[in-house]
Amino acid sequence: MSDHTHIEWTDSTWNPITGCSIVSAGCTNCYAMGLAGTRLKHHPSRAGLTRESGGRHLWTGEVRFNEEWIDQPLRWRKPRRIFVCAHGDLFHEAVPDEWIDRVFAVMALAPQHTFQVVTKRPERMRDYLTEREDREIGRAMDRQLTGPHPVPVLRNVWLGTSIEDQATADARIPHLLATPAAVRFVSAEPLLGPVSLEPFLPWPDSGGELPDGTAFGCYDCDGGTCSNCPKDHAHYACEEGPRDAEGCPEWVHCERVTLDWVIVGGESGLRARPMHPDWVRVLRDQCQAAGAAFFFKQWGEWGPQTPYPVPAQLGEMTRFTITASTDRRRVGATVWRAGHGIYLPSEIMDRNGKRAAGRLLDGRAWDEMPEPTNGDLDHG
Q1: pLDDT tens digits, one per residue of 135-163
Q2: Could you say which residues of the chain have pLDDT below 70?
Q3: Which residue, of 38, 49, 147, 367, has the greatest Cβ tally within 10 A?
């Protein structure tokens, strides 16, 4: 479930585990939570996973392993991208390691597919994958493990974390970057505030120098730990060179670990919150400058219209403030709300629904994908 999906950046969803709990503002209008409490509330995979409160259906924190779906990717012969646990979180605190082991074993047995794992709990994902060498997942995984990392990496598994604002980006992305993975990505959906991802993206070619002018390269034992790799920056990976007669490593090679892919999208549904177009443009421009893949999924319930029609009677509107980020600076913008419209400084956001709003950003679709890690697959 499901053989096909309308999610633009994947081909299918696979839900061996369902159920979750709210951890941040991005979860407030979770579509999976709403479905589990309404249309799917009697389905064995969802029954009892939500409770009603204040007219909303909220996760209870219970999770469920769906045995009948665990081998589903093995029955899909044609290569495809598969969103793992689209109606839950593989690394939820209530999910036992044994369930995660089985999911990873299936992903190892299906190298024809690319599996996309998104979590709001990247710290547990990091712990699970960096301690995995101490557990036996199965011979099938051993055949697919590869890479120079201390813990082997599945070539066909992309790991991501979801964020909604700068606070969640700063809290979650370092854990993701400290996790061994073939591809690391961020899903900024719903995007609820301005975000800068510059610290987590590749730097443009600077001739081998860091932004502070320090050169990449080699450091001997006299300098102690590599000065390019402070312990509070988990997105650096160090590799020792050969040791001399006294056992001291002669060289240390430093390399930044960065994001490969950024997905951005607005919120849909009855309670959807609008997304400022400039928030999206900033992330697009940062990805373009860094050479990272950028994917714009949707505007959601609220979409922009141009040119900006100046309201005739601003006094009758409700005024509030929204922030936008432009070129590393955050600026406040006065915004007025009237009826079903939200008026921004340069354009108007109309609540016309997801289909009418579409997914064009400045007149074009942005469907960039990171390079496949297990060969050129046909995901048509």
Answers
A1: 445 444 554 444 333 345 798 999 999 99
A2: 1-2, 132-152, 204-256, 305-348, 372-380
A3: 49
